[in-house]
């Protein structure tokens, strides 16, 4: 028995709205509870209006939170404030276990108290929770501080001092971890002290007058035990000694300069032992800039500290920085170079603007768990934000999926690439999926693809998409070699998607990418122009020679009207399982013979599983002819057929259905055809005939269509002629 109908009815009774994409909902229970939680959190749903929910003993958020796997926060982040309230502590604990995807949409600028709540929320859900994906959507004028706060905490960074914590002590989970680490460190010190004491005792015994072996061993054991006890007690009861160790330890670790001051991380053990056991905070010496990060100013920090954290602006010259950092042991002057700190943009010509280094002081921040997927959609990124993101990316080893879509990068793309290049040099780098899309391309698509693959041969999926070509393309910053000159090592690429901004498709530029991608299984080329008739043939030859594992090939908005021979060669390929010709004008100037050749070729191909032909002006008569693919003498294994946006009318669909039924009957019901897609066709012109055709089709296969208004179809048809 299934409870799906009950949850579906609950949706209608409680939500009183039509669920979006209802045909794709696989579990109505999960869909209802997630939407219920979100609507209650944001005040969209009034629980007092339903007698089943109007119970003071019933907490809607607490009841539904264990079932929430994705959550969207929007506008003024009211949801973050509500979730971090004291009365919702149990709700937040449930979300830390269940929530996988956290989304931000249409955010607005927020005040300090809201940012405080957001910091606590992100710390609990990401650093001590199970959130693996952070996505941000539609933020036309982003609040820079808020944006970088989300980015830095998603990357696993959190200053537990006064810059990002906004409260004087770490969370309970942090304190438990710190306590465990302190105990381990104290035990290690005690063991080392015992070992040193034994060695000294052994040396003294060798010089002293000989005694009985038993007496000597007993003395050594007694001294060793006393040394162990004294070591532990001194570690727990000597605040002055620990404070000194904290200050001395700060000279042995990396420093990040912040707003002209150096904030150094001391030994976690010595700091915590002093601050947690004494319950008091000793005042730092006058004139000392160095301080331990555990010393917070109070429950609320100066907003400028947060800005300094996310954008460390070098206000001193290089010599001053070197002088200050030379005082630290190990020569931390290197922390200002891209090689040691991982700050990818520090020495990049394209990233030096407005006198700002844009380096996030990663060494001055504590590292926590980070997300594996980051998505930024329609969020403009300034030069400073790009440099900060680049710096985060350079050490974000847990990142597996990165999506940057319509961020107005421009020449800042080189800064992002620099951070990715630094990340690729990390042996523990996990990035496998990279998707970049924007309105304008700052460099030719193929050059960008080559540049990325040369730095990231371990990528499995690469998608590069641009709408328009930048008129200033080619004006690259000095110090950036042309990516077309970069050698591409053998890559692990399995899926490559390129959307050209109406660029010519030159096979000679694509060929090195194909040769380096022996494991390529999916290739999609969108909006490319073929400069001459030979290019398409050269491309097919290259695919056959270089990519024997290619299973899916897609062309979208590529004019193939004059390439009928090459189209037929693709359709008879014995390896390809899915072919897409989307809006490729296949039948724009074709004859009836070309359609017959397509049908006969598909009938003989037993490896092709899916054929997608949307937007190719099939019309009624060509659709009816396609039914012969499933005739009795066919060896086709075609399972899916997409004929969306093909000017198909109800009478043509009904005739296609009758012909298909006849072929199925001739074959004794043995047919592999399972899916038919009919989006955006003219089925509304005769609703009764269309309904009959669809009902009969659904007895044969799964039909996916929509309620499309064809009144605009003629204008659309004329516009693409």
Automatic annotation (TrEMBL):
GO cellular component, one term: nucleus
Record flagged with keyword Iron: no
Entry-linked InterPro entries: Leu_rpt_41, LRR_dom_sf
Ranges of biased composition (kind: Basic and acidic residues): 178-205
Top-level division of the source organism's lineage: Eukaryota
Keywords recorded for this protein, A-Z: Leucine-rich repeat, Phosphoprotein, Repeat, Ubl conjugation pathway
Stated name of the protein: Leucine-rich repeat-containing protein 41
Gene: Lrrc41
């Amino acid at each position: 028995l299934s409870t799906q109908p009950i949850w579906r009815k609950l949706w209608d009774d409680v939500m009183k709205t039509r669920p979006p994409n209802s045909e794709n909902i696989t579990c109505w229970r999960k869909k209802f509870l997630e939407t219920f939680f979100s609507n209650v959190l944001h005040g969209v749903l009034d629980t007092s209006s339903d007698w089943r929910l109007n119970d003071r003993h019933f907490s809607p958020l607490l009841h539904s939170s264990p079932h929430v796997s994705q959550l969207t926060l929007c506008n003024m982040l009211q949801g973050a404030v509500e979730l971090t309230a004291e009365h919702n502590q149990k709700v937040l604990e449930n979300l830390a276990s269940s929530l996988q995807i956290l989304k931000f949409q249409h955010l607005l600028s927020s005040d300090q108290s809201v940012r405080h709540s957001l910091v606590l929320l992100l710390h609990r859900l990401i650093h001590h929770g199970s959130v693996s994906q952070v996505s941000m959507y539609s933020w036309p004028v982003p609040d820079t501080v808020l944006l970088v706060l989300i980015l830095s905490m998603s990357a696993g960074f959190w200053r537990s001092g006064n810059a990002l914590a906004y409260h004087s002590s770490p969370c309970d989970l942090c304190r438990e971890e710190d306590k465990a680490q302190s105990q381990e460190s104290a035990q290690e010190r005690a063991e080392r002290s015992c070992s040193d004491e034994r060695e000294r005792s052994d040396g003294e015994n060798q010089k002293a007058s000989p005694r009985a072996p038993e007496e000597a061993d007993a003395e050594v054991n007694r001294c060793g035990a006393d040394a162990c006890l004294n070591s532990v007690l001194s570690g727990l009861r000597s605040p002055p000694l620990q404070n000194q160790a904290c200050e001395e330890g700060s000279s042995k670790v990396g420093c990040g300069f912040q707003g002209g001051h150096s904030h150094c991380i001391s030994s976690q053990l010595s700091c915590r032992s002093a601050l947690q056991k004494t319950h008091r905070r000793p005042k730092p010496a006058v004139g000392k800039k160095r301080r331990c990060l555990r010393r917070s100013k109070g429950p609320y920090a100066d907003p400028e500290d947060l800005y300094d954290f996310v954008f460390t602006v070098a206000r001193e010259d290089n010599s001053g920085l070197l002088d200050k950092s030379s005082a630290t042991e190990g020569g931390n002057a290197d922390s200002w170079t891209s090689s040691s700190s991982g700050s990818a943009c520090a020495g990049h010509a394209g990233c030096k603007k407005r006198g700002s280094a844009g380096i996030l002081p990663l060494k001055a921040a504590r590292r926590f768990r980070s997300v594996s997927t980051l998505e930024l959609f329609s969020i403009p990124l300034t030069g400073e934000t790009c440099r900060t993101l680049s710096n985060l990316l350079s050490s974000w080893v847990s990142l597996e999926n990165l999506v940057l879509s319509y961020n107005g990068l421009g020449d800042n793309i080189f800064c992002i690439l620099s951070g990715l290049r630094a990340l690729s040099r990390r042996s523990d780098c996990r990035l496998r999926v990279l998707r970049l899309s924007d309105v304008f391309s700052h460099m030719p698509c193929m050059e960008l693809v080559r540049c990325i693959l040369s730095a990231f041969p371990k990528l499995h999926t690469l998608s590069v998409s641009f709408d328009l070509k930048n008129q200033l393309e080619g004006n690259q910053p000095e110090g950036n070699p042309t990516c077309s000159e970069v050698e591409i090592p053998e890559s692990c690429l399995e899926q490559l998607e390129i959307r050209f901004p109406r660029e010519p498709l030159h096979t000679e530029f694509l060929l090195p990418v194909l040769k380096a991608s022996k494991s390529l299984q999916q290739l999609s080329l969108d909006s490319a122009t073929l400069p001459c008739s030979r290019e398409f043939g050269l491309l097919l030859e290259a695919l056959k020679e270089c990519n024997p594992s290619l299973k899916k090939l897609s062309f979208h908005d590529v004019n193939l009207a004059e390439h009928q021979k090459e189209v037929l060669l693709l359709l008879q390929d014995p390896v390809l399982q899915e072919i897409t010709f989307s809006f490729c004008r296949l039948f724009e100037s074709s004859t009836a013979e070309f359609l017959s050749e397509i049908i006969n070729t598909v009938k003989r191909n037993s490896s092709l599983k899916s054929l997608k032909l949307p937007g190719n002006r099939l019309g009624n008569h060509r659709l009816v002819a396609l039914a012969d693919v499933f005739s009795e003498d066919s060896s086709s294994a075609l399972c899916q057929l997409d004929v969306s946006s093909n000017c198909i009318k109800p009478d043509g669909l009904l005739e296609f259905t009758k012909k298909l039924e006849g072929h199925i009957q001739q074959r004794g019901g043995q047919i592999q055809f399972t899916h038919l897609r009919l989006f955006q066709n003219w089925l509304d012109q005769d609703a009764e005939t269309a309904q009959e055709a669809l009902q009969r089709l659904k007895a044969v296969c799964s039909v996916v269509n929509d309620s499309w208004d064809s009144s605009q179809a003629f204008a659309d048809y004329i516009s693409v002629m």
